[in-house]
Amino acid sequence: MADQIDSLVIEHLRHIRKTVETTALDMVDVKARMSAMEGTLGHVLTQLAVLNGRVDRVEERLGRVERRLDLADA
User: Fold this and answer.
1) pTM for this prediction
2) Where do the DSSP E strands lie in the chain?
């Protein structure tokens, strides 16, 4: 009887070990994908900053044009 219980416990432990190993491998994949997403997000934020700078320069130039044509409010 004790041998059957030991065998059952060992079987459950093997199943748990296999599940933990599978989860660990999945986490490696998740970490790689997360790193890629973080890199992409960094690139997007950089491009957004560049576009904001360009919009600021366009607004400045438009303001000068409006003042020159007397279209701007005092």
Assistant:
1) 0.64
2) none
CA distances to 8, 9, 41, 46 from 19, rounded to whole Å, are: 17, 15, 32, 40
Q: How do the pLDDT tens digits run along the chain, 74 residues long?
A: 788 888 999 999 999 999 999 999 999 999 999 999 999 999 999 999 999 999 999 999 999 999 999 987 75
User: What does the block give as tokens for 29?
Assistant: 């994949």
Q: Is the dihedral of CA 49, 55, 57, 63 positive or negative?
A: negative
CA angle 22, 23, 27 (to 5 degrees): 120
> In whole angstroms, what is the distance from residue 57 CA to residue 74 CA?
21
